[in-house]
Amino acid sequence: MHRIFQEHPDLFSRLSDVLGVNIPQPTSFTVLPNDLTETRPLERRLDTLLRLETEDDEPFLLAIEAQGKKDPNKHASWAYYASYLLNKYRLQPLLLVVCQDRATAEWAAREVSFGPRQWPLLTLRPMVAGPHNMPVITNPAEVRKDLALATLSAITHATNPKAEVILKAMTNVLRDTPAALANPIIELIAQGLGKHPAAEIWRKLVAVDLSFYKSPLSEEIRDEGRAEGETRRAAQDILDVFEVRGIDVPEAVRERITSCDDPETLRRWHRRAIIAPSADEIFTDE
């Protein structure tokens, strides 16, 4: 049933006419190896994979991908994931793509077909969550109704002009939320906002509104605050030494001292300030 196509590759053109499918006439043929076995490990990783049970006893697989930008190679990868999961688990797969950028979300949501346009073999149709369809939750009462959904919404709206209002609503609710539940959410939002400006807004809100929490982010912010305070005091100690000794400190030297955030360097400068004949001498051999 298949070897005849190896001996007569041009048979497909005549067969497609019989089947009523208008596929262009090929101009040449090449018989390729039919062994599709992977001869070496090929690393492919989903971001998250879940098996979900349902009330109608039809479990399915939920593959979740976080997509930061358009990637023309992703469609083929997602099709591979779906085929692999179906073959391995014998369960129907569903792909959810989470985006923070509207253009990326709309790109990811498009149906993509694989195969000749006259007869597509596969159609990829991801489910997409992004700023184009996630609710903008600015009311603490709405956050309280579904904290997990509000968290995802806050992350997907990282670039929304109302980001600060959205995040403020989160901290209003987290203040009254048990630490065991609040701490992971604090960290998830911090990681989810990435390098967007909203991430700095979140850090400030956590430092002010949630300063009593012991989450890793809260501790990190407090440690940064303590370290910053220590370096400010160390820099002032150097300037105090010069003042007591009656040594003039040029503005450039003062700026270099006060902008330094390395404790060891400040300690070294402090020791030199005790004996240096002029302010800029503390930078000798730097």
Please tag this protein with its features.
286 residues, alpha/beta, 3 domains, 4-stranded mixed sheet, two-stranded antiparallel sheet, elongated, Transposase (putative) YhgA-like domain-containing protein
Helix-strand blueprint:
Elements: H1 3-7, H2 11-19, E1 48-52, E2 60-66, H3 74-89, E3 92-98, H4 102-109, E4 112-114, E5 122-124, E6 127-129, H5 140-145, H6 147-156, H7 163-174, H8 179-193, H9 197-209, H10 216-245, H11 251-259, H12 263-273
Parallel strand pairs: 2-3, 3-6
Antiparallel strand pairs: 1-2, 4-5
Helix pairs in contact: 6-7, 6-8, 7-9, 8-9, 10-11, 10-12
Organism: Streptomyces acidicola
Protein name: Transposase (putative) YhgA-like domain-containing protein
Q: How would you describe this structure to a colleague?
A:
Helix 3 links the parallel strand 2 (60-66) and strand 3. Strands 1-2-3-6 form a four-stranded mixed beta sheet, covered by helices on one side. A two-stranded antiparallel ribbon has the order 4-5. Helices cover 50% and strands 10% of the residues. It is built from twelve helices and six strands. It has 286 residues and is an alpha/beta fold. The protein has helices at 3-7, 11-19, 74-89, 102-109, 140-145, 147-156, 163-174, 179-193, 197-209, 216-245, 251-259, 263-273, and strands at residues 48-52, 60-66, 92-98, 112-114, 122-124, 127-129. The chain folds into three domains: 3-26 and 43-129, no CATH class; 140-214, no CATH class; 221-283. This is Transposase (putative) YhgA-like domain-containing protein. It comes from Streptomyces acidicola.
